Amino acid sequence: MKLNTLAWRNLWRHKRRTLITASSIAFGVLLAVTFTGAGDYFYTRMIDAGAKMGMGHLTISAPDYNRAPSSQKRLQGTDQLQIALADLPEVSSVIARIQGQAMFASARKSVGGTFIAIDPA
Q: DSSP string spanning 28-48?
């Protein structure tokens, strides 16, 4: 108890130094919280932008497709899966897409690329 009283008195013996130190700590914490919040915000925006530009927030693929993509590894019964997913209240839209790689060629040049096809119906 006596040590706490001595420490408290020592803090306020140099008021200016104590206030500068306390305000520096408060400012540092404020900056850390602000930049952490900004980082979380930008990370969320980046995820949403990537989902809008690409395949969406959720992609369902055949087992082992991501490890070794192949046109033979495709899902069966996707119509029933689309209906079941569309009935979920959290789901805003369900779209069947096909993604693959191809060689695109013209008279002068050929280049490899990726295509994404959707069912317009």
A: HHHHHHHHHHHHHHHHHHHHH
Q: Please give the torsion angle defined by the CA atoms of residues 33, 34, 39 and 45, in that order, rounded to the nearest 10 degrees.
A: 130
**Structural element, H or E, at residue 98:** strand 97-105
Cα 116–chain centre separation: 21
Task: Show Cβ contacts of residue 18 under 8 Å, excluding neighbours closer than 6 positions.
Answer: 11, 12
Question: Which stretches in the chain have pLDDT values below 50?
Answer: none
pLDDT value, residue 121: 67
Rg of the chain over Cα atoms, rounded to whole angstroms, equals: 29
Domain residue spans of the chain:
2-51, 54-118
Q: Could you tell me what percentage of the chain is helix, strand and coil, using 3-state DSSP and rounding each to the nearest 5?
A: 50, 15, 35
Is the model's pTM score more than 0.90?
no
Enter the DSSP assignment of 41: H
Q: Which two tokens stand for residue 94?
A: 């369900």
